[in-house]
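We now fix the convention by which a protein and its fold are recorded. Think of the row as the fold of the chain written in a discrete alphabet. Here is one such record, which you should read through line by line.
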Amino acid sequence: MKYSIVLLVLVSIIFSGCKKKLEKLNGNNVEYEVTEFELTETITFQVPNTIFTVPLNICWDIPLLTVPFKEKVATSNPNPYAHLVHDIIPTTIKMELIGVEGCDFAMLNEVQVYMVDKDVQDKADIIIYDPNNPSMAYNAKHMGTYNDSNGGTTVPNNIGNTMYLTPNPDIRLDEFIHDQDFQVYMDMTIDKTFVEDFATIKTTLGLSVKLINENKTHF
């Protein structure tokens, strides 16, 4: 009986010490939190006036038609740590019209913007990702379009020299940003004239990214 009491006391002491050690270890467990921040990409497009074949006047409506303009611009993400982020989503697409007097973005009728694989050389070879068929091969993703407050896609008159497209929240651009080199493809229709040799469109992309962390709990 005496030995049993001594043994019971020893076991109680051992488990009490283990409990304190476990409490200290549990105190070192930090709940995983996602680190999210934003990257910015700036791309400049030039719309040449040679796409028109009629004499031009400042911001006149092109009668009975619209003129398509499709252009790819090669760009890159110079950040050497781009591979450390994922879940890359377009959050803002800002467009600024530069160098055109007497006209604003009302010269455009519709605008679509895409991110394209760097190896695509011909615009005819662009294959846009289809969210309804994700297993299908693709080399481009639709980033955004112009939408008014009612959801319409026609750019209104007197919109000004700055406009924002509606970003597509359902796509991820990881493969393009991780590759560092990619292209931005602008698909527009123009329904007004301008007299300058070219119109410059500066496009700034805001991209939400998350820091890659394979360990969900830190010790």
